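re: the backbone from monday

yeah here it is again, tokenized this time
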């Protein structure tokens, strides 16, 4: 294993998601020149992020399917056709056994 590859300058840093008005304090070595006053009254370096668990559609339950190429429609059509084939085969099998 390689020696001395991990950073040693971990410090408290605030990560701020501006779209969701959400921030959290954690330890990081992310470089930044900005600071912010945190709830404890101290100033900490701040890293602004575009998306976090507070604004990501997966975590907020607002996940949407963006179907630009009609993939969902084609999939649904294939499922409908497969169901019709299964029902036709089952009917044919039932009439042959009767």
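seq for it, each position gets an aa:
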């Amino acid at each position: 294993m390689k020696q001395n590859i991990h950073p040693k300058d971990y410090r408290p840093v605030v990560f701020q998601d501006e779209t969701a008005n959400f921030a959290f304090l954690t330890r990081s070595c992310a470089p930044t020149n900005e600071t912010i006053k945190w709830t404890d009254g101290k100033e900490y370096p701040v890293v602004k992020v575009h998306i976090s668990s507070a604004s990501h559609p997966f975590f907020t339950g607002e996940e949407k399917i963006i179907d630009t190429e009609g993939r969902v429609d084609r999939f649904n059509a294939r499922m409908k056709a497969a169901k019709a084939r299964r029902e036709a085969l089952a009917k044919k099998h039932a009439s042959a056994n009767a």
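The radius of gyration is 27 Å. The first helix runs from residue 57 to 60.
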